[in-house]
Amino acid sequence: MAVRRGRRARAEPVLSTHQPSERQQARERYRRSRALRRGSVAAVSTVVVLGLLLLGVVSSPGWDRVQRTFFDWQDAKDSVGPITEAFWLNVRLFVVCEVFILVVALVVAVVRVVPSPAMAPLRLLATIYTDVFRGTPTLLVVLLVGFGVPALDLAGAPTSLFWLGVIALTLSYGAYVAEVIRAGILSVHPTQWASGRALGLSYGRTLRHVVLPQALRRVTPPLLNDFVSLQKDTALLSVIGLVEALRQANIISNRDFVFTPLVVAAVLFIAATIVLARLADWLTVRSMRREAGGL
Amino acid sequence: MLRIEQLRKSYHGTEVLRGIDLTVEPGQVVCLIGASGSGKSTLLRCLNLLETVDDGTVWLADESGAEQDVTDPRVDVDGVRRRVGIVFQAYNLFPHLSVLQNLVLAPTRAAGVSRQAARERALALLERVGLADKAGASPDALSGGQQQRVALARALAMDPEVLLLDEITSALDPLLVGEVLDVVKGLRADGIAVVMATHEMAFAREASDVVAFLADGEIVEIGPPEQLFDAPRDPRTAAFLARFRS
C-alpha cells in the first residue's frame, strides 16, 4: 500500500520574534538555579552512598580473601575466553526458545479467548496447560523434560540436550507469555470488537486484523520483561548437562578452587540482559506516551 | 427496505424496547429523537445485530423487494452487517491503522473487494468527506469531527443499503457538528436509507423524511418533521420539544 501510516502529525513550530519579558527572564533564572541545585544534590548523595557501601565492603575483615577468590583479575582473564564461548550456547538457546515461545503463547492465548464451540476441547487443554506450567517451578520442568523424555524411549523423541532444553523452557515460558498475550487481547476495548463486527468482519478477522495488532503492541513491554528473565533462565539448563556459561564457569571454578569465573559468568548475563531491559524500558515509556497522546 | 415489527429487548429485566414498529423506505432519512435512555441506541444496535432481540421481527428487503427476517438466528450475520452499516458516537476508528487502511480493511477482508478497487473507493470517499489529505494520517492525529467523518466514510466503504447513525455528533464541539451533518445530508443523493438517533433537532427538522419520538422504549409519535415539530399530538412529545426550545 502506497499511503503508509504517517508520522504523528505535529504542529509546525512557529518562529517567534517575541522577546521574553523581564518577569519571564527572572522565572527562567530561578528555574535554572533550582535545576542546578537539584542536580548537585543528586550527584553528591550518589557519591556519598556508593562510597560508603564500597568502604563497608572493602574494610570488612574477610575482604582480602574474597578479593582473591571472587575478584581476581588474572583468573578473570584466564576464564573469560571459555566462558564467553559457552555463553554463545545461552544466546542460541535464548533465540530459539523465544521464537517457539511466541508461537506457542500466541496459539494458546487465541484458543483461550475464541468462544467457538468447536474449540471447547482445545480451550480446556490450553487452560490446563497454562495452569500446570505456570504453577511448576521452571527448574522442575527442566529436570522432568531433560531426564524424563529420553527415559520414555519414544521413537522420534529428541535426545539432544539442546532440544530437550528448548522444549522445557518453551513449555514453562509459553504458559506465562500466553497469559500476558491473553491479558493484552482482553484489554482491547469492546467497542473495537463491535466496530470490526459491525463492518461485517467475521470474528476471526476482527481478532486477526483489529484486536491482535493492538493487543500485541500493548503487551510488548511486559513481554520483553519475560524475555529478560528467560535470558538468564537458560542457565537452568546446566542441570541437565548442557555446558553453557554457568556450567563452564563452574567447571573452571571447581578445577582451580576460585570463584572468579562465576563472577565472569554473572557479568556476561548482566551485560546481555541490560540491553533487553533498556529496550523494554524505552518501549514502555514510548507506549505510555502514545496512550496519553491518543486522548 | 427495513420493516420492524413489535421489537422487544430488555437488559437484566429492564425493558428497553417495548414493542417498536417502524418502516423505513429505500432512500429515506429517519430521525429518532428522545431523551437519553429512551431506547434509541438499543434499537439501532438491534438492527445491526449487535444485540439479540427478545421478541419481534426485523425484515430487510433486497432490491427485488424480497424480505428476509434478519432476526432469525440462522441468518448470515456478517452478510447482514455488510448491508446495514453503523456509525457510533465514539467513532471507534482502528487506532493502529492509518485513515486509508481503516477504510480498506473491511471491503478487502469481509466483502472480497480487490485491494486496488477498495483503495480507489476509499480515496474517493475521503475526498467526499473532505479529508483526502488525511489518507496517510493516524486517527489520533485528527480532530473529533474529522474522526467522525472518517468513521462515516469507513461505513460507506462497505457500500451499505442502510446506514445506522448512533448520536454521531453528541461527542462533538458545536462547530464540528455541521461538518459531520453535511456529510449525512449528502447521503440522500446515494439512495441509502439512513436511521439516525440524534439530539440535533434543527437537523432532524430540515433533513429527515420521518421523525420518530421515543420515550420509555416505545415510539410515542411518528410523522413528517413539520407535523412532529410544529403540531405534536402527544403531550409527551410537546414537553420534550419544549425543553429543547428553551
Automatic annotation (TrEMBL), chain A:
Main subcellular localisation: membrane
InterPro entries: AA_ABC_transptr_permease_3TM (IPR010065), ArtM/GltK/GlnP/TcyL/YhdX-like (IPR043429), MetI-like (IPR000515), MetI-like_sf (IPR035906)
Protein name stated in the entry: ABC transporter permease
Organism whose genome encodes this protein: Aeromicrobium erythreum
Family indicated by similarity: Belongs to the binding-protein-dependent transport system permease family. HisMQ subfamily.
Region entry Disordered, spans: 1-29
SUPFAM superfamilies for the chain: MetI-like
Membrane topology: Multi-pass membrane protein
Superkingdom in the source lineage: Bacteria
Domain (ABC transmembrane type-1) ranges: 87-280
GO-annotated molecular function: transmembrane transporter activity
